[in-house]
## 1
Amino acid sequence: MTFSMKRVNAILQKDFKDISRNSAVSITALMPLILAFFFGKMGDVSLEVHYMVINFSMITVGSFVQCSLIAEEKEKNTLRGLMLSPASTVEILGGKSLLSLIATMIIVVIGAFFTGYQPEHIVVIAIAILFSSFFFIGLGTLLGLLAKSVMEASVIILPFMFVFGFGSMFTMFADKYPILKVIDYTPNMQLMDIAVKIESGVGLGGVWLNFGIIALWIIAVYALTVVVFKKRKMD
């Protein structure tokens, strides 16, 4: 079966219509901008706060919106029809992820404008954010496949929103609770570490390990997603 961009585009257009009719999801997707506007009005914004907004944007838009779209398809029993259509797994997952990816990038850029974030090396940072967003969208897809309804999706995403959206706050207690040091290896903290290194003058060659750790998370989440997707297809 050959890859068809036409089928991917058809799924994208359908998702756009679905999300435009879902006011709850649309309003939730705007929450990072409210947060960014609030912090931007406070004056000097630290790098930690810039990345709190960026990571919150990716977990809210990339993961939550994606999770809700997939869960809604399951609730309406339209996902099964899509699974049984001529579209391949890559076309379905790619098409279902494209809207979330575009929306995530738009929200991140507008949020960075509100907070006044001007990275030292914008190309490396842009690549890092785009790369990290693949993980967040994969996470949303996985949780959406596991959820039975939109309501359930909005609940199971909550722990991940805290860990991946506000992970930097938890690390402050790592000395008292050593187990929290594992948060340093999550994609959001690796993205933060890339930003810190870039601001200190380190080039792309100095952050390859951070990219490698994020890549492992991406591989893991998409491997699980494909397994769950195929299982749902067989059910």
## 2
Amino acid sequence: MASQDIIARSATTTPMPSVRQMDDVAKLIDVSKCIGCKACQVACSEWNELRDEVGHNHGVYDNPMDLTAESWTVMRFTEYESDAGNLEWLIRKDGCMHCAEPGCLAACPSPGAIVKYANGIVDFNQDKCIGCGYCITGCPFNIPRISQKDHKAYKCSLCSDRVSVGLEPACVKTCPTGAIVFGSKEDMKEHAAERIVDLKSRGFENAGLYDPQGVGGTHVMYVLHHADRPSLYAGLPDDPGISPMVSLWKGVTKPLALLGMGLVALFGFFHYVRVGPNRVEEDEAPQGDATVHKVDPSVREFDPKSPS
């Protein structure tokens, strides 16, 4: 499980060197066990040395209200009234989903600014980030944020530094209810299947696993009471996918642009072979009799010193 071997880099077509075959890792968040204590938020800030600005009270439990470059995970609270009239409090830990087919990596134009490790974790390298924000456009979950201090993009790294030495992410370590667990993706799916059976036995017929295939699956998964309607959980996308703009750029526009550049270069080469280099001919000096300046006899030269 411990690995920092890279299998994909942004804006790089060079094949990656051979890497060790590693099991995919995953973090499973069981929202039915979450109590909204925000211990995971604090642990994330502590481990990653993040100090966000103190915000304002908006009359809700969400604090901060949104992800920032200094808050890589936030708790989102939603009150939901079912068709039967039952009031439910849906709590979701929001952060990077570490997609198997990351849209941020596909959209990033800076080589190596976004990498994907062999274990599935998607990480940002701020030293190579140019702050263009294309990763935000490419992310179907609206996760990355640009810092106003250094104009670099930031998001949850799934504690790749801890995982690389065999430790679990900080949020997993601190969760007091066991709502967040970590391990191989296969093990997490098996664990989720057991939880789903339990939820269905308690009346949640639509309980299920959130592992959207529109992005090839994710390395952060949810067990939801209402898996048929993920958007109930503070706008979790029902069917996320990579932005059409990114697909257009990477799928059609970029190859066409490269083809156009190649045709221009090829045309220039044949023009040079057939016609040769362009030469600029210097202006030749006039030959023969220069143009005679004829003086009008009616015009006399005037000398102010001579007496009139």
## 3
Amino acid sequence: MRFLLAAGLVLALPVAALAQGTPNPNRLDGSGVPAATPVAHPAPVSVGETDLDFISSYYQQNGDHGAVEGGIGTQHLTDVAPTIVLNVPLDSVARLTANVGFDYYASASTDRIDQVISSPSASDVRYHIDLGYARTLKDKRTILSIGGGASKEYDYQSFNLAGSWTHGSRDGNRELSIGGQVYLDRVTLILPVELRTAATGSGNQAHGSGFDNRQSYNLNIVYSQVLTKRLQMAVSTELVSQRGLLSTPFHRVYFYDSDRALGTPGTLGTAKTELLPRLRNKFPVGLRLNYYATDLVQIRGFYRFYNDNFGIRAHTFELEAPVKVSPFFTLYPFYRYHTQTASTYFAPWREHSIYDEYYTSDYDLSAFTAQKLGLGFRYAPLYGLGRFKTPFGGRVAKFKSIDLRYGHYWQTTGLTANIVSVDFGFVMP
């Protein structure tokens, strides 16, 4: 029993390790469009049965510091992301997992790349797929997993490989998990329309000046320990090294000064495309505590310290308190607090000099404090919510659970967001 409790702190890691890379790696507080929709309760299933989750989320944000317009434009964005997650036991020691879906987003900010409202860049679709294989070794305390995936949108392609090793102690009170991921990305360079030149192409062309690449190397280490019958802890780190193109070519930066070589300044000032170093190392460490206050109430706490070579220092606190209203109905309010310093390379609109080596007006790299407050519920009756015959083969499937979650997010920069997600869980024969 203790081993299962301890494993609950880290077993989600190999599954999460197969998730897609985030579309916006500058968001450090876990806000924004989810990089991948997690399965709420990835519990083991019996051999001969398949866990199937239909997950969907709707995200909307508003703000006035869009990076496409140099930190002074709209940040309005909506995103719909349906996903199917499969967990298929092959036998008593091996299982396959699959995560397939797409994101459809509409962005008023990227619509300003061409400075034409309702341009082709106003919306896009990102498709993604991840496959994984996990196997428990003969000692029944070691799990190996491997996987890979890909995602594609109009100007972005990404491929990833992942692997992890998890080992539990004989008494089941301790567990160590180590996972690694490699992301290989290819980015189409799309420049703001007024910054295209004879060399990059000009006018309302779709592409700018070709392609560039990015590589990301992640190392996840998690150690979990059962401290008492009611208290568990896990210490983790996720070291990340990114190389290649780390700036966004269609982000404008406006300067307070000018240079003849850049021509006559426009009404908003002299503009160039964002420029950031081609190497970024991230060093986060986290502590998670789960406390079973009573048989009906659990308190989950998380703290993370983050720093990187872009000059950002951040602290994140999370608290979630699942309460069993009945044996099958659980409410879980949650709250997150995040604060960070600004990157060395960030400055607001017209506060950079054209002689700066690197420059950005992306407010994801600014100093701010953010909070997120929300409520979720899970309903999972013992015999499920219903049964039905599958379209092919006429076998009986079970509609086992429903999870619904809402969160409201706000920053001191003025950015606000709302996200609703739902998870319909099924067991297929």
## 4
Amino acid sequence: MRYFPLLIALLVFFSSFLVEKKGKLHPYKLEYPTSFGSRFTIPDDNPMTEEGVALGRMLFYEPLLSSTNTVACASCHKQANAFSDDRQLSIGVSGTPTRRNSMSLVNLLWVKNLFWDGRANGLENQAVFPLTHPDEMGQSLEASAKKLAKTRLYPPLFQEVFGTSVITGEQITKALAQFERTLISANSPYDRSLKGETTLSASEQRGRDLFMRGPAPERGVRGGNCAHCHGGAKLMQEVFHNNGLDSIAVADRGRQEITTDGLDNGRFRVVTLRNIALTAPYMHDGRFASFEQVLDHYNEHFHFSPNLSHELRTSHNEPTGQRLGLTSSEKKDIIAFLHTLTDSTFVTNPAFANPFRKH
């Protein structure tokens, strides 16, 4: 027993050469307008670092994460389209169209319940769905980790960020989440007009007023009431609404498929309207190809379903009206305003672009 302390000391000494260590990491500094607020959560076990964000960006554009080595996250979330897809429904590894329209990845730092039906809480959990879904990227996290481990590129990067050269699926989703939290858009002409740096045209200003204002025909006030659901600095609400697309949602019940509550039938997440001119087609199933079709729906064609949004049910510009009742000119003004929500610096930001692309 007299040699026992010496044995312990030797084990500690030699083990110091075996423990894998993280590289020197640099905290990532998020920059966003104060108006966006700080009501967001970054998991304690996934703090953002410059190195983690850089790794997540590479993985976002990495087709090895798909079963066919041909599909990356960026395949259906293109920067030029504000990280959405210009298809009605995206095409993944199976060649079968996805069930719902690809959502824009913008300002997700502030979104708690992701996907059209809000099924995933947190970006780390969200990433698992497209990575493993047979019609999207179609590959288990374990298989993706094994593929990355066989490359020369990734093991040192995971070692640096996570302190181990053994790549895991959890690390992949964490790195992706770090990158996605950086996708912040807040520099549209509308934003700059609020800061006095530019001036909206007369039509854009009229559209802005209609967008922000609810109608009150008894006082002669006309409005589109769009901001009731798409208002605030981020132009979104963390809520789900039935916007009258169907009298009863059968093929896709939306939020009801998660909660099983009949009151949630046909309810879908209210998405941000930032960069909305770049994200057509619209709605969860991409049924509308243009702004004009969307405005016509809200103004004239929505269904009076049992779960129809209260705001749609009660917003009228005419005293005896049953629908919104905007004029053609008013709809054009609102569309003019929607175009001012395009943040060209966001969709051309090199920090979000494909790091593998040769220029």
